[in-house]
């Protein structure tokens, strides 16, 4: 009881006891998950530093000279590496960044990770190892594919144009609402009890890409077609639009290894962290259609 009361007292409105101000650094703070986390933290009166290559606080994963200025005075970090923890060298980069964070006095780090990706799991281990060695509290949010990929991310334009052609067949994926990730990240940054935990977050239902596109067609009241295409044709089409080889390799990895069925089973991770069920894709799709995502 006493420790609960003192934890509450420490965690009020962006301040630790002793008057030290809490500052949350949100990397990828302009992206799908980061922007939602920024909104939530600001709504709770937290001090937030948004960091990315295009933010006022510039942070570039490829330029370690930008890391220390971004970390100055920070107490908590949301770590969303881009383009993906699966790219070669990502584990070394996030481990080096976490070491700098600990040296700068950061106390908590929340790592966004991908489910069933060996590269992402190597990065998790690298960050956790640094955390153990430095006393930093670390929470991993290991996530399935985002529902927002269809409404804000890389597939949104094709969906709006009426046809989504991807190198994926009938495999099902429990698409996850980024609002659930943001809620979980904010809890892990602000509340006690999440240090050392890895939460496997998924949506509540496994759906195929064709199922998702059917939901979107119904919600927006205009047909969208899903077409499964061979990987080679998909690569050639994107290469023709100037997409570089490293991005093509990453996409090939995501559509083959990660979508081979290994991640099809929904988990109760959202319920574990948030004490409520994960958001339904159909609800996200209805909200996105109402917000005009595909018009
Ligand atoms: N999409 C999915 O289904 C899915 C599933 C599981 C895990 N993930 C993971 O989610 C992470 C991406 O997070 P997200 O979807 O929230 O972001 P996002 O929407 O992909 O946006 C990327 C963010 O990172 C920033 N960024 C891009 N390149 C950067 C660089 N070199 N240095 C620093 N910042 C950079 C971008 O801003 P600037 O352009 O201004 O730099 C932006 O804020 C990846 O690690 C991915 O593996 C995604």
Structure, described:
There is one protein chain. Helix 5 links the parallel strand 5 (108-114) and strand 6. Residues 1-12 have low confidence and may be disordered. It is built from twelve helices and eleven strands. 41% of the residues are buried. Helix 2 packs across helix 7 (178-190). The strands form three sheets. A seven-stranded parallel sheet has the order 3-2-1-4-5-6-9, sandwiched between helices. A two-stranded parallel sheet has the order 7-11. Strands 8-10 form a two-stranded antiparallel ribbon. Helices cover 43% and strands 16% of the residues. It has a domain at 2-143 and 178-202 and 265-278: 3-Layer(aba) Sandwich (Rossmann fold). With 295 residues, it is α/β, with parallel strands linked by helices. The structure holds NADP nicotinamide-adenine-dinucleotide phosphate.
């Amino acid at each position: 009881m006493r420790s609960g009361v003192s934890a509450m007292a420490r965690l009020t409105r962006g301040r630790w006891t002793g008057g030290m101000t809490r500052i949350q650094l949100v990397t990828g703070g302009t992206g799908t998950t980061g922007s939602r986390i920024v909104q939530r933290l600001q709504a709770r009166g937290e001090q937030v530093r948004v960091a990315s290559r295009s933010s006022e606080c510039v942070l570039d994963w490829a330029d370690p000279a930008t890391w220390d200025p971004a970390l100055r005075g920070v107490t908590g970090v949301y770590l969303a590496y881009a383009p993906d923890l699966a790219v070669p060298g990502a584990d070394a980069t996030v481990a080096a960044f976490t070491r700098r964070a600990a040296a700068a006095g950061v106390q908590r780090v929340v790592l966004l990770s991908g489910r069933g990706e060996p590269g992402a799991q190597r990065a998790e281990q690298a960050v956790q190892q640094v955390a153990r060695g430095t006393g930093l509290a670390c929470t991993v949010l290991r996530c399935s594919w985002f529902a927002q990929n269809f409404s804000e991310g890389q597939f949104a334009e094709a969906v709006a144009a009426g046809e989504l052609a991807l190198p994926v067949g009938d495999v099902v994926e429990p698409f996850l609402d980024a609002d659930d990730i943001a809620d979980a990240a904010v809890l892990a940054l602000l509340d006690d009890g999440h240090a050392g935990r890895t939460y496997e977050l998924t949506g509540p239902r496994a759906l195929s890409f064709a199922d998702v596109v059917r939901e979107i067609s119904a919600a927006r009241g205009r047909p969208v077609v899903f077409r499964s295409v061979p990987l080679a044709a998909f690569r050639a089409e994107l290469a023709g639009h100037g997409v570089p080889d490293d991005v093509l390799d990453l996409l090939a990895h995501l559509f083959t290894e990660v979508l081979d069925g290994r991640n099809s089973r929904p988990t109760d991770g959202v319920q574990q962290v948030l004490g409520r069920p994960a958001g339904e894709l159909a609800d996200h799709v209805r909200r996105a259609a109402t917000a005009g995502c595909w018009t």
